[in-house]
């Protein structure tokens, strides 16, 4: 039987919604299961029940208080925030130089920046460790800020350079005619226009610093300076065969909630930032 145009459109729309529903379930289910597990204790952790039956909120209290995850949350927030601030400050000025200033070897500089971002963390771990120890930053938050900024800068510089190239040159020329200096042009003209791209790159850098584990495990040894991923990894039970899964899942939920909140708050700017470079106005 031949379908009409409206029936074909309805069928296509139905398939799109069905596919979106399946993808949404696949993406949301791990977090939903983590929330359920964080509210259970004892033998309830091993029951295959996908509906909430008990609410042991003491798992969150123990994870944040007794296990020191609360202090680690503050450390992670400080490290990620300072890293994002340093990356955006350096990146927007570097992007202006690479996108607007003509000099010999500019393409090679961009290519080098892109190549640096491809190095895995383990490849530079020993060299970064020696640098951190030489600078006297071992077992301090400064070691994490230095290492995270080093790895986030190539990505933020590359992305912001691409966005800045799409901005019309007339904006810069009009600002120069009005007597604006270089710093004024960057901060008063380009920065507000590049708001969505700054939010997008800043949020990605924040998530990378928030979730990083290898450097945090290597450069920090004291409990008071540990970040959240390491603090969760250090949670132990009464024996090596008994782990506090309720506490671990409660800490994991607490760690995930700020990222979800940031994405929801800046959702519109993130979408604008991802699509800003698609069409050159």
List the helices and strands and how they pair.
Layout: H1 5-38, H2 58-66, H3 69-100, H4 106-116, H5 121-134, H6 141-165, H7 169-177, H8 182-193, H9 195-211, H10 214-219, H11 228-233, H12 245-265, H13 267-275
Describe the protein:
With 281 residues, this protein is mainly α. The protein has 2 domains: 5-46; 71-275, Orthogonal Bundle (MetI-like fold), CATH 1.10.3720. The chain is 73% helix and 0% strand. The chain has helices at residues 5-38, 58-66, 69-100, 106-116, 121-134, 141-165, 169-177, 182-193, 195-211, 214-219, 228-233, 245-265, 267-275. The model is unreliable at 277-281 (pLDDT under 50).
Mean pLDDT: 83
Element-level helix/strand string: HHHHHHHHHHHHH
Sheet/helix structural class: mainly alpha
Per CATH, which architecture of the largest domain? Orthogonal Bundle
Note the main sheet.
none
* Discrete helix count: 13
Low-confidence stretches: 277-281
CATH homology group of the largest domain: MetI-like
């Amino acid at each position: 039987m031949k379908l009409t145009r409206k029936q074909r459109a309805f069928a296509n729309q139905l398939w799109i919604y069905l596919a979106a529903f399946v993808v949404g379930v696949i993406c949301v289910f791990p977090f939903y299961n983590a929330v359920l597990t964080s509210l259970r204790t004892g033998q309830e952790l091993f029951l295959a029940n996908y509906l909430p039956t008990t609410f042991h909120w003491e798992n969150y209290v123990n994870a944040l208080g007794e296990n020191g995850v609360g202090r680690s949350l503050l450390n992670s927030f400080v490290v990620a925030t300072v890293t994002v601030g340093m990356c955006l400050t350096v990146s927007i000025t570097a992007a202006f130089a690479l996108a607007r200033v003509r000099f010999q070897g500019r393409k090679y500089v961009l290519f080098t920046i892109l190549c640096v971002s491809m190095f895995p963390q383990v490849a530079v771990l020993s060299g970064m460790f020696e640098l951190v120890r030489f600078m006297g930053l071992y077992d301090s938050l400064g070691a994490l800020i230095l290492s995270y900024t080093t790895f986030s800068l190539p990505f933020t510089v590359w992305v912001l350079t691409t966005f800045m190239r799409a901005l019309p040159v007339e904006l810069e020329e009009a600002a120069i005619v009005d007597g604006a200096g270089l710093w004024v042009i960057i901060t008063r003209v380009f920065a507000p226009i590049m708001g969505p791209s700054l939010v997008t790159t800043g949020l990605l850098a924040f998530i990378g610093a928030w979730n990083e584990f290898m450097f945090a495990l290597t450069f920090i040894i004291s409990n008071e300076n540990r970040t959240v991923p390491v603090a969760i990894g250090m949670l132990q039970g009464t024996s090596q065969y008994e782990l506090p899964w309720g506490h671990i899942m409660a800490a994991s939920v607490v760690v995930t909630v700020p990222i979800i909140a940031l994405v929801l708050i800046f959702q519109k700017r993130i979408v604008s930032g991802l699509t800003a470079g698609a069409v050159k106005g």
